[in-house]
């Protein structure tokens, strides 16, 4: 039985070794390539303008709340109990609306970012597919975030500059 397994392993090893010697792959930093795209700068600027608008509105409603709260604190000792409760309820409602607006603004900014960057991600995927097919790679690795602590330059190829050049 051992001889059968040994002979089977010896028979298969040349095929495995041959397949490994032909295995090629590329590697690059997705983040660097993505940020090198000309359309990235325009999309980022557009998102920053949108974020500025949301920030300005959040500042305005926060200032409005602070003003009403100060007025409430200044006059609370003079308010009748029913007016005091009404003002407290108004402040509570305003605070809840402000928090809801902040959450909605975050969601809308994230959605706008996804929509702005989607065509760039698609373009990068197409470029990577083309490079992979043209060079006969089995796969292309993303080296960002220390996801690949070691890459062999014997069977792997750094395609960072090729990807950036193709994207331009």
Provide structural commentary.
The chain is mainly alpha-helical. The chain has one domain: Protein Binding, DinI Protein, Chain A (2-Layer Sandwich). Helices cover 77% and strands 7% of the residues. Helix 2 (30-36) packs parallel to helix 5, helix 3 packs antiparallel against helix 4 and helix 4 (81-135) packs across helix 5. The N and C termini lie far apart (60 Å). The model is unreliable at 1-13 (pLDDT under 50).
Topology:
Blueprint: H1 2-22, E1 25-28, H2 30-36, H3 38-75, H4 81-135, E2 139-142, E3 156-158, H5 160-167
Parallel strand pairs: 1-2, 1-3
Helix pairs in contact: 2-5, 3-4, 4-5
Q: Return the CATH topology.
A: Protein Binding, DinI Protein, Chain A
User: How far apart are the first and last residues' alpha carbons, in Å?
Assistant: 60 Å
- Mind telling me which CATH architecture this is? 2-Layer Sandwich
User: Strand order, biggest sheet?
Assistant: 2-1-3
Q: Helix count, per DSSP? A: 5
Q: Which blocks of ≥5 consecutive residues have pLDDT under 50?
A: 1-13
The mean pLDDT is 87
Helix content: over 70%
Can you identify the CATH class?
Alpha Beta
| Total number of domains | 1
What's the oligomerization state?
A: single chain
Q: What's the total number of strands?
A: 3
Q: Globular, elongated, flat, extended or rod-shaped: what is the shape?
A: rod-shaped
Largest sheet: 3 strands, parallel
- The CATH homologous superfamily corresponds to Skp domain
Strand proportion: 5-15%
Structural class comes to mainly alpha
Rg (CA only): 30 Å
Order of helices and strands: HEHHHEEH
């Amino acid at each position: 039985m051992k001889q059968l397994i040994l002979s089977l392993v010896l028979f298969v090893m040349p095929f495995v070794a041959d397949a490994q010697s032909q295995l090629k792959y590329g590697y690059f930093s997705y983040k660097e390539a993505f940020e090198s795209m000309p359309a990235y700068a325009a999309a980022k600027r557009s998102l920053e303008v949108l974020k500025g608008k949301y920030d300005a509105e959040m500042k305005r409603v926060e200032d409005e709340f602070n003003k009403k709260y100060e007025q409430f604190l200044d006059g609370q000792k003079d308010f009748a109990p029913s007016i005091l409760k009404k003002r407290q309820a108004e402040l509570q409602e305003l605070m809840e609306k402000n928090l809801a607006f902040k959450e909605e603004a975050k969601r809308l900014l994230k959605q706008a970012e996804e929509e702005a960057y989607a065509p760039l991600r698609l373009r990068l995927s197409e470029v990577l597919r083309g490079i992979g097919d043209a060079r006969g790679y089995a796969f292309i690795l993303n080296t960002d975030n220390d996801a690949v602590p070691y890459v062999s330059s014997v069977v792997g190829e750094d395609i960072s500059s090729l990807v950036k050049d193709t994207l331009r």
